Amino acid sequence: MCTGLPRTACPLRLFALCILLSHAAAYFGLTGREPLVFLPGPFANEPPNGKAHLKQCEQMTLTRRQKRLCRREPGLAETLRESVRLSLLECRYQFRNERWNCSMDGRGSLLKRGFKETAFLLAVSSAALSHALAKACSSGRMERCTCDDSPGLQHREAWQWGVCGDNLKYSTKFLKKFLGQKRVSKDLRAQIDAHNINVGIRAVKSGLKTTCKCHGVSGSCAVRTCWKQLSPFQDTGHLLKYRYDTAVRVHSVTNSATGETELASPRRHSNTGPRLRPTELVFLEESPSFCRPSRYSPGTAGRPCSKDTSCSSLCCGRGYNTALHLTTLSCHCQVRWCCHVECQTCLREEEVYTCKKH
Fold it and tell me: Which residue ranges run through the membrane (predicted)?
């Protein structure tokens, strides 16, 4: 269950964030190159069906209703794992040069607050799940969905020609069912969470493009097949990082016409003023500095930085240490007849900069 989360927000809080709380130690310190493993090894090489599939569903930190959906859909467990991998790697990549670098390290307190960082986590997690579900449909890893429903394209032809479109329509519909998104309560935090989740889903949708392939003699375009294809997830990550950088602080107001509680930003001076855009990330309170260890962050001490670009900001005015490291690399490579390359091993001295503790 989503333990430790606000009761009003729990039905809306994405499963991946619950997994972040339970498995933070599994990804803390990643550079973005390592694979992520959230389930025990014995199930990693088993097909996502039968007992292995059921075990994977049970071991994930999901609500009871989500576990039921997971058990009913062979292939869903692997898709959930893939979405967590996508969201974590993308978060670490986008914040690699920031004071908060997406590290949790047992600091689930951040998820209980209305910071910009929490908004990004919700958005990138919902985006990753939407993306992974659409890709799982088009790749045949989900039994209850297949290619997108592009007009004039039969599924059998799509598989034969290798043009099976990413089924974002099914993905979005299933995602709302999986997250249990119903009518949002009057609770301000629940409204903010729901808004940021939808920002992530919209970010994926904005990257859906139409791709076409020609069929004909000598490459002619006598017959053309078109299908829907999602952009690489890193494009979505870049967009969400921009949304994070331009996030809007909000408060609640009562609509005089309907009596409903709504989100509003300081730029909205009256009930008839401009409303929040559905693509804007929103937050409730200012973030801490993340410079020193706290319940929200391990701080920046010891973080590697770039002398010319990031040390000044990352080290928070404490300065940085300089060390010389020897690295090995291949050098003086020559091609030998035939098809063989011989290289020497050279040593290179590099300066490495890390933030000071004091």
Answer: none
Those residues with Cβ within 8 angstroms of residue 301's Cβ, 6 or more apart along the chain or in another chain: 292, 293, 318, 355, 356, 357
The CA dihedral of 244, 250, 254, 255, to the nearest 10 degrees, is: -50
Residue with tokens 């997406």: 102
CATH of domain 313-355: 3.30.2460.20
- The residue ranking higher by pLDDT, 36 or 187, is 187
Do the Cβ atoms of 232 and 238 come closer than 8 Å?
no
Mean pLDDT within 254-262 = 72
| Cα gap 230→35, rounded to integer Å | 22
- Residue 57 to residues 2, 62, 77, 142, Cα–Cα distance (Å): 15, 8, 6, 15
218 CB contacts (<8 Å, ≥6 apart)? none
Closest of 212, 48, 204, 208 to residue 132, by C-alpha: 204
What residues does 328 pair with on adjacent strands?
347
Between the alpha carbon of residue 44 and those of residues 48, 77, 93, 220, 286, the distances in Å are: 9, 11, 25, 45, 41
Helix axes 116-139, 188-206, angle to 10 degrees: 40
Using the 8-state DSSP alphabet, how is residue 41 labeled? G
In tens, the pLDDT along 121-175 reads: 999 999 999 999 999 988 888 878 878 765 555 554 544 555 678 888 888 888 8
Q: Are the C-beta atoms of 118 and 282 separated by less than 8 Å?
A: no
**Residue 330 parent element (H or E):** strand 320-336
List helix spans (H) across the chain: 15-27, 50-59, 64-72, 76-94, 116-139, 155-161, 168-179, 188-206, 233-245, 311-314
- Give the span between the Cα atoms of 118 and 99, in whole angstroms: 15
CA-CA distances (angstroms) from residue 176 to 21, 67, 170? 22, 15, 10
211: CB partners within 8 A, 6+ apart: 163, 226, 227, 228, 229
Q: How far is CA 67 from CA 38, 62, 63, 289, 351, in A?
A: 16, 6, 6, 37, 50
Overall pTM surpassing 0.85 (yes/no): no
The chain-wide mean pLDDT, for the chain, equals 78
CA distance 291 to 299: 5
